Amino acid sequence: MPTAAPRPCTHPGCGALVRDGSGRCAKHPKPAWQKPANATKRITGRRLQRMRAALFERNPLCVECQKAGRDTEATQRDHIVPLAEGGPDDATNEQGLCDACHEEKSLQEALRGRRRAGW
Ligand SMILES: [Zn+2]
Ligand SMILES: [Zn+2]
Questions:
Q1: CA of 119 to the centre of ligand 1 (A)
Q2: Counting Cβ atoms within 10 Å, is residue 58 exposed (0-12), middle (13-18) or buried (19+)?
């Protein structure tokens, strides 16, 4: 097993490098509570670019296709638990999907009656 690449703490304004894969430094442990009623604010801009690049470096292949035994290049950064359903917008809740799998997953989320503006 290769050790996880250090990533900056996801606490706003912190940026301390975290090596245990938790996404948070010692000073900013992940809150145990979540606010499912509030959709998580989506990360945008340069920070998102960095997260995408790091994700595809770690997981260059679509996770859904891999489960099915296919090697397909991941092109979409997907949230395992959708932000609209209270999932965090950080490295613990992201996976790489190909266009087809991402489309399928988005469709399933919409079918669950969770359709929101902005998708
Ligand atoms: Zn921190
Ligand atoms: Zn796929």
A1: 30
A2: middle
DSSP bridge partners of 8: 17
Q: How far apart are CA 31 and CA 33, in angstroms?
A: 5
Ligand 2 centroid to residue 11 C-alpha, Å: 31
Q: Ligand 1 centroid vs 41 CA: distance in angstroms?
A: 18
- Please state, in angstroms and rounded to a whole number, the distance separating the CA atoms of residues 110 and 48: 24
pLDDT tens digits, 30-82: 776 555 556 778 888 899 899 999 999 999 999 999 999 999 999 999 999 98
Q: What does the domain layout of the chain look like in residue ranges? A: 59-112
